[in-house]
Amino acid sequence: VQLQASGGGLVQPGGSLRLSCATSGFIFDDYAIAWFRQAPGKEREGVACVGSSGEGTYYADTVKGRFTVSRNNPENTAALQMDSLKPEDTAIYYCNRYGYWGQGTLVTVSS
User: Fold this and answer.
1) What percent of the chain is helix, strand and coil (3-state, nearest 5)?
2) Distance (Å, rounded) from C-alpha 58 to C-alpha 82?
3) 34 vs 21: CA distance, rounded Å
4) Longest dimension (CA), the chain
5) How far apart are CA 50 and CA 69, in angstroms?
6) Lower CB density within 10 Å: C or N end of the chain?
7) Do the beta carbons of residue 90 and residue 33 sit within 8 Å?
8) What residues have CB less than 8 Å from 65, skipping those under 6 apart?
9) In whole angstroms, what is the distance from residue 12 CA to residue 50 CA?
10) From the CA atom positions of the chain, what is the Rg in Å?
11) Sheet strands side by side (includes 77-82)
12) pLDDT digits over 32-71, tens only?
């Protein structure tokens, strides 16, 4: 099982980024995919989750209305569209399938 997040970078406050999660080694359609983040000196926290069919989603209160989670089952990928970014969104972002973590991607929101 492999998950690889990508798409991070440096963005100014108010800007947008789109993170991607490429997966392999399991039946993608059978699992929900979640996004977590870990800011410097803080614990890892859940950000968003999308159900196996893509119809059910969950967002942390801190990102609700700004982030949109999605998935493309035929391509075994998921995405996290992040808009209206704030400095407090700075963190390493990870995509997750139950029991497995991939390498994260760093998002830095700074002017």
Assistant:
1) 10, 50, 40
2) 14
3) 10
4) 41
5) 6
6) C
7) no
8) none
9) 27
10) 13
11) 2-6, 17-24, 77-82, 67-72
12) 999 999 999 999 999 999 999 988 999 999 999 999 999 9
Q: Give residue 35's pLDDT.
A: 97
Contact 2, 102 (CB under 8 A): yes
Question: pLDDT tens digits for 62-110?
Answer: 999 999 999 999 999 999 999 999 999 999 999 999 989 888 999 999 9
Residue type, 67: F
With a cut of 90, say whether residue 13 has pLDDT above it: yes
Per-residue model confidence (pLDDT) at position 55: 86
3-class secondary structure per residue, 5-49: EECCEEECCCCCEEEEEEEECCCHHHCCEEEEEECCCCCCEEEEE
